[in-house]
Amino acid sequence: MSRLSYLGKQLSRPTRRDYVSSIRGLRNFGLSCCVNALLQSISATEELLKLLDRWNPSGNYEERNNVPLLLRKTLHSMQGESPQPAPHCEFLDCLDRNSIPRNVQHDADEVFLSILNLILQKMTDTQLKEEILELYKVKVEGHVVCSECTFNHKVNSYMLSLPLPLQKGQNNLEDCIQKFFRQQELSGEDKCYCERCGEKQRSTQGFKLCSLPQILCIHLKRFRYKGGFTQKLHCKVTFPDTLNFSSILDPDCISDVFKKDDSPYSLYAVVVHSGTAMFGHYTAYIQPPGEQTWYYANDSRVRQVNWDEVQSSFGGQNDGDTAYMLLYRRQKTSEDQGYSV
Ligand SMILES: [Zn+2]
Q1: Membrane-crossing residues (predicted)?
Q2: Which domains does the chain have, with CATH numbers?
Q3: Going residue by residue through the chain (341 aa), what tens digit of pLDDT does each one get?
Q4: Strand, coil or helix: what is 159?
Q5: Spacing, Cα 208 to ligand 1 middle (Å)
Q6: Based on CB atoms within 10 Å of each CB, which residue in 1, 12, 82, 313 is the most buried?
Q7: Which of 106, 219, 234, 281 is catalytic?
Q8: Three-state SS string across the chain, please?
Q9: Ligand 1 centroid to 21 CA: how many Å?
Q10: Which of 33, 94, 192, 235 is labelled catalytic?
Q11: Among this protein's residues, is 217 annotated catalytic?
């Protein structure tokens, strides 16, 4: 957000209304709105805090540089009974020392993935490390099939957030997911080298879904880098509060190893970007664990909202609010005991 409006925000004293919810607002310290919005969505991810709480680091470590330790401390401070004026300042400084500088406008998805990577780098407990990774891992099989000799080059990989390309005009989330997994033709300059033919050939490329995580993070790719500039797509993307994968994907897009699971996913956090690619501001809608109520966190200001207002982040108008990241949680069935896939 702009320096001017940032100063304006600091001058306006928080009103009593700011603290009526169970959610703590976070002051904006020099363009920290991106990390603030992410912290709100992470604080609604109780599964991650439970895993971080199980960590008992031993040996030599420096807390001020340790992202998982300071994240854990910050999340607890945000839940504390006696509000501190700035529970996240140490965390912002810690990120700054770990190549996520303060006073810079960031991309929320990049910072989210960097925070996850920094947690995994500093985590000394290999079991917990694996469980944190599994919490977010979307496992896929990438296929490139040569159109000439039908050789299938298969690569297993995973993503910690599902990057969905958007098209101009109207989009809906289910269509975007289908398109992500659907096979596409690679021809002309996009031709791929075929190992069997020994030369570049026309081919088809696609992903097959192997498994879905407990926490599904979806990245709506609203920013395009073109000709040295970043452009923002303000297009409308509708998304449901309950997502059922088994009714979205074509059978062709599901791997043989996929274990059918009809548990639907419930939306619990939306990271919102408003403004333009050059001049933006991040906020978040969150639904705390165990609550049906939605809250809107705009830095230090937090207020209760209804589902209709969450849907105002579908976008479609230039400079309006647009959902940028969606966090869904797999609903537990009676047989579920944990969150492993
Ligand atoms: Zn071939």
Answers
A1: none
A2: 16-330 (3.90.70.10)
A3: 433 333 333 334 444 334 445 788 999 998 899 999 999 999 999 999 999 999 998 776 788 889 999 999 999 999 876 666 678 999 999 999 999 999 888 999 999 999 999 999 999 999 999 999 999 999 999 999 999 999 999 999 999 999 999 998 899 999 999 999 988 899 998 898 999 999 999 999 999 999 999 999 999 999 998 888 889 999 999 999 999 988 898 888 999 998 888 899 999 999 999 999 888 999 999 999 889 999 999 999 999 999 999 999 999 988 789 999 999 999 976 555 444 43
A4: strand
A5: 20
A6: 313
A7: 281
A8: CCHHHHHHHHHCCCCHHHHCCCCCCCCCCCCCHHHHHHHHHHHCCHHHHHHHHCCCCCCCCCHHHCHHHHHHHHHHHHHCCCCCCCCCHHHHHHHHHCCCCCCCCCCHHHHHHHHHHHHHHHCCCHHHHHHHHHHHCEEEEEEEEECCCCCEEEEEEEECCEEEECCCCEEEHHHHHHHHHCCEEECHHHCEEECCCCEEECEEEEEEEEECCCEEEEEEECEEEECCEEEECCCEEECCCEECHHHCCCHHHECCCCCCCCCCEEEEEEEEEEECCCCEEEEEEECCCCCCCEEEEECCEEEEECHHHHHHHHCCCCCCEEEEEEEEEECCCCCCCCCCC
A9: 60
A10: 33
A11: no
Sequence length of the chain is 341
